[in-house]
Predict the structure.
Amino acid sequence: MDAVTRPSWAENPWRQNPWFESVAVAQRRAQKRLPSPVYAALLAGSERGQTVRDNQAAFTELGLLPHVAGQHAERSMTRTVLGQEVALPVLISPTGVQAVHPDGEVAVARAANNRGTLMCLSNFASKPVEEVVEACPRTLFQMYWTGDRDVMVQRMQRAQKAGAVGLIATLDWSFSMGRDWGSPEIPEKVDLKTMVRMAPKVATKPRWLYEFGRTGHIPDLTAPNLAPPNGPAPTFFGAYYEWMTTPPPSWADVAWMREQWGRISGTPFLLKGVARVDDAKRAVDAGVDAISVSNHGGNNLDGTPAAIRLLHPIATAVGDQVEVLLDGGVRRGSDVVKALALGARAVLIGRAYLWGLAANGQAGVENVLDILHGGIDSALLGLGISSIDELSPESLLVPDGFHVP
Ligand SMILES: Cc1cc2nc3c(=O)[nH]c(=O)nc-3n(C[C@H](O)[C@H](O)[C@H](O)COP(=O)(O)O)c2cc1C
């Protein structure tokens, strides 16, 4: 290996190889590297954590039925999702407040772009949509139902002008308060007083500090994509207050939102957070192009079943009219294969890439996407399937009572 290609970690025998072999390893590294409140903010969950646990546990109840011979030497996992061809059926789910890494969503977007998939940018993201679209031209912008209609239209126009290739409306938030294991302290802003108070938790994480120190700025915890035209970005809590005090949307509001985006952009509109067949049908009536079967990664109404339990009945009911995606609990390629076999066109991942980002920045997110790519490929090989298009429930062992109607 010559000096140019030799990885830097190989020159220092004490430096850990930054590559990781599974999402679980990335999570352990994230826990080690991040200050405890930041790690806890990513771990998230709500109330007693029933849903967040079930999202992952439910995947372990599904079995795969492999063949011993007759497999295919070449396997395909490319597919068109939301009008875009992706190299693997895994999209980056929108997640807010990324004080994980100084490059935040821009690093994630670069990784998505390099691996041939789509970036979905949170309303509460720490980087402006313009910068993120530059890093990944195939970015969808996510919005909550927050602010009045003029404000929402203005935010849609900004996303369209930046070049967003779709809009995601996440409407499943129920402002649930309190976790049995305690919530991390999120400061209103990071000033000197806050830094002194949080110093003991941060000082033990020199690598995280170093990453931010190198860039010369500390996380400012604002939401730049919620700024009024030519105005300052609100703080996270300012933005949260606007959201909490906005009356919840009706189905007519969903149709209005869809119509506005159609008028402004003409690119696809996805409703995220669908957990019931009747809602999926209403979403179709409201004119959406796609839905994501999701419980917000278990951060929302605790007691909602795992997203994978909800998927098949919903995909059966509306899968021929809209694209059905899934998010929640995906940690390995075989999880993706299970979701596709039960009717998902693609999945979105949240924590998995956040762990990767914390473990090794952009390369860590690419590492996670590579793990999922490899896992999908190996599941297809084992199942004797040459393309994700051939996946069906027959590829799986599904226990009685698994699907929630
Ligand atoms: C820390 C964190 C922040 C999130 N922020 C948002 C957000 O701003 N908008 C959104 O639509 N979903 C948000 N989500 C939900 C994710 O988009 C996704 O639904 C969820 O993470 C999927 O579950 P998984 O983490 O098990 O993959 C967030 C999730 C986490 C863990």
About this structure: The pocket of flavin mononucleotide is lined by residues 42, 44, 55, 93-96, 122-124, 142, 170, 272, 294, 296-297, 299, 327-330, 349-352 (CB under 6 Å).
